[in-house]
């Protein structure tokens, strides 16, 4: 394994594991100013990929009978949620079918940076900090029950984890998931206090020099995303999750079946589903923010993994599609 200069403009790391054999390629720099290369244990921001960790924690609380998929928001909130219906269920939040007006609607909005004209990004350090961006929005009842990708729902899920456990959700995830599955390089870090060997996210716009994303994303991740991790930690996550080290086989089976979706996307509970390739069904997690793009595919049958992290918003989805086409052609 070595670090190469950017290949076709790509900056990041690619991991492929098949039959427990690893192939890892690294390109570019984690820190341009100091010309620091990307390494196998470089931590990358993962944006919405972190939703899977929130979903795992919720499923664990369900196993512990502290809530259920049918539990409604009014069990945890009185008037705090203002315009949001109190009878929305945990299931609806997990499956993006709650109809909540999101603070960033990816179906109609393109510039995530515009959020911080209302609230400065450096002030977002816990779930409750971002809730003012959506709790006052007038709800459209016609949206409810329809699959519409929703960040706000996962902010509420993380906030519910905190209410049930009386602890910060990222500490719950550290104890429940990261420590148990030997994900020692994974955590929710603050942009203005990143640990060593963390990739700085860079924003590329045509005709401009790349710039850091420090003013463009939440200062610290929420239930909607923002976790930092490494490709090897994600391998540990997939292996541990599907060895039932955290959740039962029944809970995992519930998570990876189709619950909602449209003609383009199929949604489980915290994960996405691909169309099966004969005996090769894949599930995946992904994320995209200014200066962040990532995807990780996992085959529960063969235990194959394909993970790509980029700190330049590179097209990781094309690489994933090419990988699936390659797998299909090899059968």
UniProtKB/TrEMBL annotation:
**GO CC annotations?**
membrane
**Is the keyword Acetylation in the record?**
no
Recorded superkingdom: Bacteria
Q: Locate the transmembrane regions by residue number.
A: none
Q: Which InterPro entries match?
A: AmpC-like, Beta-lactam-related, Beta-lactam/transpept-like
The answer, when asked if Membrane is one of the entry's keywords, is: yes
Q: Which Pfam families match?
A: Beta-lactamase
Subcellular location(s): the record lists: Membrane
Keywords assigned? Membrane
**Domain Beta-lactamase-related, chain residue ranges per copy:** 25-315
Q: What is this protein called?
A: Beta-lactamase-related domain-containing protein
